[in-house]
């Protein structure tokens, strides 16, 4: 085609690249993604920065066999192109049909490149059939999709208003379903979703509906007249689906759900409010770890949600205003004769003097991403304070908690290396405490990361040992220096002989696996007695020796442990 008007070729290509509604990828001869356009991100869910440098196999749905892909590449290599329908997988796990065209392109440098252009058929098919989304189905489960859900919810609310009926919206999320996909593969994960979809389909009656509204989320619309208790009946049926393991491909999978419920007209006046409120109830279940449980929306959840939004805004301002500060809790050898180090604990005091509990702002900081800059500041401030103590003659080890968000959402190695370089704090005195729950995913990634951190001279310790998911094999092969026993075992020491036996077994196991063992949450001399005073190598952290201290108070505490000069 010849253009009969003056236009800059580069500008034209850039405009088409950015504005075209089809997804486009450019790969080199080895299949490495070199560039993607905006539509690619909109369709797949992968941002350009997440896709570039990787292989298009990140979109592979496992719904085609090797023969399919072998024929595709025979066509590309023989004819220079391939075109057809293919099923791919979005970042959130949803599979979808697309029309894909791949063309081989010769580069000016003699290299070979491949350009792929694709259209999302999942919405187009419904429109082509004249459905305007009416009756659109989720491709994997055969359930209705979120568009049909919204239409049915709207119709049910209109009917409910006319006939003075209630309408329940039940939303649920499969807890940690990513673990199923990661541990057993997407094919097993898809079979689980289809199985759950079939079970859910058997629950609803003709005037009710269930839809798959996300990769691991489902929703029910349940009309209810004044005399029935149909909503609770459906809730019980949902819970029964997950009351026993799901058997798929010779695997026994224990899956739990978080369920939230909103009821019209008591909780909401329209569909948008119902979805919001049911979501608030569901997230309350998740936050409070009520696995396999459900929550009915109430006004307190709305107030809590608004408080959390306000708290997030205040937290961001607090970072700028310097409202966060650190206290340090001493870690003392059994018997109280010597301090070996401290743990840095973050605190937040608002301008009006209110002190916000870490149990409230830390989870929110992790959810919102604020934990990444906050975690960097904590590490740098702790190291800076350690240097000040060192100059004053107090050479103390420093333990700093590391959030999973910092591990998976930030460059933790660079953060640690930078803090050590900028402050001059000795690397061999720094210990990073990692909770066991961090080890549920990507163990290979963690091994590589902490091997690099260990090479700096920094030590790594398991926090809350005995309460999480780390396997003994993983602990045995991980470069841990220390283990911190969770406070729950300290409480068990005084509850019953059986509980004490378990707690002492955990302590003994930790002593055999790590060079340094810290027992936290020790508050009384009675608890010290039950731990065993003969275990002189144990390090004790708790109120029995000291509460967390402001940095200027710590030297006096250290001096108080030193024997008097005769």
Description:
The protein contains 21 helices and 21 strands. α8 runs antiparallel to α9 (230-241), α13 (371-391) packs parallel to α15 (412-423) and α15 packs parallel to α16. By secondary structure, it is of the alpha/beta class. Residues 1-7 and 127-134 have low confidence and may be disordered. The strands form four sheets. It has an eight-stranded mixed beta barrel, surrounded by five helices. Strands 2-1-5-4-3 form a five-stranded antiparallel sheet. The protein has a five-stranded mixed sheet with strand order 7-8-6-11-12, with helices on both faces. The termini are far apart. β3 and β4 (95-106) form a beta hairpin. The protein folds into three domains: 9-124, 2-Layer Sandwich (Beta-Lactamase); 133-297, Reverse transcriptase/Diguanylate cyclase domain (Alpha-Beta Plaits); 323-559, EAL domain (TIM Barrel, Alpha-Beta Barrel), CATH 3.20.20.
Short description:
Residues 165-301 form the GGDEF domain. The chain is of the alpha/beta class.
What's the layout of helices and strands?
Layout lengths: L8 H11 L3 E5 L5 E4 L1 H7 L3 H4 L14 H14 L1 E9 L5 E12 L5 E9 H8 L17 H18 L2 E9 L2 H8 L1 H18 L5 E6 L2 E8 L5 H12 L4 E3 L2 E3 L3 E8 L6 H17 L6 E3 L2 H23 L2 E10 L5 E11 L5 E2 L1 H11 L2 H21 L5 E6 L1 H6 L2 H12 L6 E6 L7 H13 L3 E7 L6 H6 L4 E4 L1 H6 L4 H17 L2 E5 L4 H7 L7 E3 L12 H8 L5
Parallel strand pairs: 11-12, 14-16, 16-17, 17-18, 18-19, 19-20, 20-21
Antiparallel strand pairs: 1-2, 1-5, 3-4, 4-5, 6-8, 6-11, 7-8, 9-10, 13-14, 13-21, 14-15
Helix pairs in contact: 7-8, 8-9, 11-12, 13-15, 15-16
């Amino acid at each position: 085609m010849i253009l009969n008007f003056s236009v800059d070729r580069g500008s034209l290509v850039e405009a088409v690249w950015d504005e075209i509604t089809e997804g486009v990828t450019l790969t080199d001869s080895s299949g490495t993604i070199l560039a993607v356009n905006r539509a690619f991100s909109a369709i797949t869910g992968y941002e350009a920065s997440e896709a570039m440098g990787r292989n298009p196999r990140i979109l592979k749905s496992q719904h085609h066999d090797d023969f399919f892909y072998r024929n595709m590449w025979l066509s590309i290599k023989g004819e220079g192109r391939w075109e057809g329908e293919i099923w791919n997988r979005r970042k959130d796990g949803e599979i979808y049909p697309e029309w894909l065209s791949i063309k081989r392109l010769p580069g000016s440098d003699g290299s070979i490149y491949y350009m792929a252009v694709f259209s999302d058929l999942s919405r187009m098919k419904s429109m082509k059939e004249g459905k305007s989304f009416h009756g659109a189905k989720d491709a994997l489960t055969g359930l209705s999709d979120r568009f049909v859900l919204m239409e049915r919810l709207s119709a049910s609310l209109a009917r409910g208003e006319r006939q003075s009926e209630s309408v329940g919206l039940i939303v649920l999320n499969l807890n940690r379903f990513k673990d199923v996909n990661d541990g057993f593969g997407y094919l097993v994960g898809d079979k689980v979703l289809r199985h759950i979809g079939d079970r859910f389909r058997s629950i609803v009656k003709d005037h009710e509906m269930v839809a798959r509204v996300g990769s691991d989320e489902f929703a029910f619309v349940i009309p209810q007249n004044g005399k029935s208790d149909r909503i609770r009946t459906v809730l019980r049926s949902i819970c029964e689906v997950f009351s026993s393991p799901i058997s798929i491909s010779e695997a026994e999978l224990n899956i739990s759900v978080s369920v939230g419920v909103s009821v019209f007209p008591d909780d909401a006046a329209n569909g948008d409010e119902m979805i919001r409120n049911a979501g608030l109830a569901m997230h309350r279940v998740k936050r409070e770890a009520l696995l396999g449980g459900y929550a009915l929306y109430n006004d307190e959840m709305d107030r809590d949600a608004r408080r959390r939004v306000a708290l997030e805004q205040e937290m961001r301002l607090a970072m700028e205003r310097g409202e966060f500060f650190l206290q340090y809790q001493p870690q003392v050898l059994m018997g109280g004769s010597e301090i070996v180090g401290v743990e840095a604990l973050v605190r937040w005091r608002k301008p009006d003097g209110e002190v916000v509990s870490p149990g409230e702002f830390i989870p929110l900081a992790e959810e919102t991403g604020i934990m990444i800059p906050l975690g960097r500041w904590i590490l740098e401030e702790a190291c800076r304070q350690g240097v000040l103590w060192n100059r004053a003659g107090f050479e103390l080890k420093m333990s700093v908690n590391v959030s999973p968000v910092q591990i998976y959402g930030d460059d933790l190695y660079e953060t640690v290396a930078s803090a050590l370089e900028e402050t001059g704090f000795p690397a061999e005195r720094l210990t990073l405490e990692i909770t066991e729950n961090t080890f549920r995913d990507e163990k290979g990634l963690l091994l590589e990361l902490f091997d690099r951190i260990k090479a700096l001279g920094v030590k790594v310790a398991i926090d809350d040992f005995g309460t999480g998911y780390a396997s003994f094999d993983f602990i045995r092969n991980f470069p841990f220096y220390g283990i911190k026993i969770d406070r729950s075992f300290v409480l068990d020491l005084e509850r019953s002989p059986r509980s004490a036996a378990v707690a002492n077994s955990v302590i003994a196991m930790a002593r055999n696996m790590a060079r340094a063992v810290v027992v936290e949450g020790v508050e009384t001399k009675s608890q010290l007695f039950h731990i065993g005073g003969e275990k002189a190598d144990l390090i004790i952290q708790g109120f029995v020796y000291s509460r967390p201290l402001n940095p200027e108070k710590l030297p006096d505490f250290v001096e108080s442990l030193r024997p008097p000069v005769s």
